[in-house]
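Its record is retained below.
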Amino acid sequence: MPSACDSLIEDIEDMVSLNDPTPYERQSARKAIIPRSRKKKELLSDEELQADSLIPGTQKIWMKTWGCSHNNSDGEYMAGQLAASGYKMTDDPVEADLWLLNSCTVKNPAEDHFRNSIKKAQEQQKKVVVAGCVPQAQPRMDYLKGLSIIGVQQIDRVVEVVDEAVKGHSVRLLGQKKDGGRRLGGARLNLPKIRKNPLIEIISINTGCLNACTYCKTKHARGDLASYPVEELVERTRQSFQEGVCEVWLTSEDTGAYGRDIGTDLPTLLWRLVEEIPKGAMLRLGMTNPPYILEHLEEMAKILNHPRVYAFLHVPVQSASDSVLMDMKREYCIDDFRRVVDFLKERVPGVTIATDIICGFPGETEEDFQATLALVKCYRFPSLFINQFYPRPGTPAAKMEQVPAHVKKQRTKELSQLFHSYNPYDHKVGERQHVLVTEESFDAQYYVAHNKFYEQVLVPKRAEFKGKMIQVDIYEAGKHFLKGRPVEDSRPFTPSIAAPLEKGEVSGLMQDQIVSDCASLPPSSVFLIGSYRIEREVLKKLVIGLTLAAAIMAFVVEKLF
């Protein structure tokens, strides 16, 4: 018979009482303690030594994220909230007190890495909190037993969960965000975050999708389509540019389906966002499935031709066989995919179309596979994500008759060889291009920039280029990159309307947002500013006072000068 200790706490309210002391009250109580002298040889007990280390908000946290840009955005939000609450984010897993593991459920290898990381953390006596699609889809897996879980729509409560994990409690928050019974896109978009790259903002425009692909495990975690309102996305984009961002990525499980649940659509959103993009800054669209982009081809072509939008679109085909697509329940045929690609190539000269292909899906014949090879030969995709099929537990495809492993491996190898047999960028050598510099290459030898077609261009690593739009002459082309030489008489252009945040710095809320959010929180809420914990009402008055003082100063200066 299980003991009381084995019971599962489904929500944090089951454990935390309104009568519990707040972090501010705990800190005040500690200051009121009168110290007494100890004898030199008197040693502290283990309990006394550990007392301070168990105060939530003082520990070091290491976070690892697997998977898509949507998951990376969730990770940035969680890191920002933890840092704003006093926790120190570290890049060193060894020195961390707690590991926050943000998982991906798309492929078996990603979940294997996630599971191995949990085991490694436990072997090193680390506290562990798990997040992402794996625990959301399968919270009862044996290797997750006893671990605290943050659901994909509960990332705004990461501090609460980590606080409890630090104290040795197990808390699981897996619920959905709803408003009047309608499912929401997720946590608020104006939460604090730490951008992995201070120059790039990743915005999730919706969660979930309208499909039911037979191989997909992500659907079990992210669920049906739920979109953020246009105004919230516009405001988040505006705030990002005010914090020095020069490139915005839109992400979701299917951007093309955006808005169908709230009475709008993707082009409507994009035209609003384009109005917010400063000169020289760029917008990148995320993945869209063929069925939902077909309705908007005319408008999408106009948007992709806009000078501040990358002429790039990721449209997964998965297979060129209608039979296989039907078994996958992809809800389109190969002619639909061809229509999308042909239309965009005609209306958006030079457009980059990236795609995905699964090799060895159950029931795939040699004839099916040859059709897929023919498609790649026809379009010579410059960006092709090749995936050997892995049956994911709980999906319909896992119950289908499987293609032998050696056949899947051979087909994956053959398609990879075809992809590497052509160089898509050779004809670009000699061109003069404007490129936006946003990051550093993996070998740290170059800065990485992208041209209008989101093709990777390596440029000299000069500090004055970072975050700038520069003009280059292309002098070399590789399989996945171009190399550009800066034009001598050209000057770098700064697209950012503000200085970017420092790496690791937390992006903050605007003053009016802080006041508004303060009003919606309980009076006992506390905020961390520097090393000080400030109560809600004090912070609210402080912000209002500073705003008023700034206004008075501006008035005085205007009258005097």
User: Anything to note?
Assistant: The chain has three domains: 60-175, 192-422, 427-486.
